[in-house]
Specification:
By secondary structure, the chain is an all-alpha fold. Among the domains are: about 50 residues; about 45 residues, Arc Repressor Mutant, subunit A (Orthogonal Bundle), CATH 1.10.10. Helices cover about 70% and strands about 0% of the residues. Helix 6 crosses helix 7. The protein is flat and about 90 Å long. The chain starts with a helix and ends with a helix. About 15% of the residues are buried.
């Protein structure tokens, strides 16, 4: 009876030891599983750590102040100036109207050759003036008395070589040779002969009156 108890006690002890061993093995297994889980979660943790370190490095490499400087530089850059408007070209001034060219001066009519009657009237006028004094008007009247036309007599009086002032002085002298005159009376006589007032006054002055 005592032996059986002992055997039973041994069996119980062995059973207890077995349970204890199982419990230790389970604990070891549990511990191993925990370490494995920790080992498996370690790469993720290291990856997160690496990402955080990279982010921190990037943040440190690009400081906020530098970003702000870039932003300020961008905002401070002058706005693109609008292209200047093209300069308006001044309107071309109207060219002054061309001045009318002066009308060409008409050529003087060519002198016609004198007619035979004109040449004869001129010859007669020269003959009269050689021995007698005449005014222009008196000479024309004398030529008309000789039957020359008024046109021929006038042409001859205008083309004869004569000084009418000297003719007035000569006529005044002729009058004083056979008749006495006052200065005023002699001037009137010369005016009657066809001399102008200036010619008559000149002729009378030449006589000493």
């Amino acid at each position: 009876m005592k032996r059986i108890f002992t055997t039973a006690a041994v069996s119980v002890s062995l059973l207890a030891l077995g349970l204890t061993g199982c419990s230790g093995t389970g604990a070891a297994l549990a511990g191993g599983g925990s370490e494995s889980a920790a080992a498996s979660s370690s790469p993720a943790a290291s990856s997160e750590a690496t990402t955080e370190a990279s982010t921190e490095a990037t943040t440190e490499a690009t400081p906020t102040e530098a970003v702000e400087d870039v932003a300020e530089s961008s905002s401070a850059s002058p706005k693109t100036t609008q292209s200047a408007e093209p300069t308006k070209q001044p309107k071309a001034s109207k060219s002054p109207k061309a001045t009318k060219s002066a009308k060409p001066t008409p050529e003087a009519p060519k002198t016609k050759a004198p007619t035979v009657s004109q040449e004869n009237a001129l010859g007669t006028a020269q003959n009269y003036l050689e021995y007698q004094a005449f005014s222009r008007k008196g000479l024309i009247e004398q030529l008309k008395f000789e039957q020359y036309s008024t046109a021929d007599a006038t042409w001859a009086a205008d083309h004869v070589t004569v000084n009418w002032n000297e003719q007035a002085a000569k006529k005044a002298k002729d009058y004083l040779e056979y008749q006495s005159f006052s200065r005023g009376g002699l001037i009137e006589q010369l005016r009657f002969e066809g001399f102008t007032a200036a010619q008559a006054a000149y002729g009378v002055s030449k006589t000493g009156l």
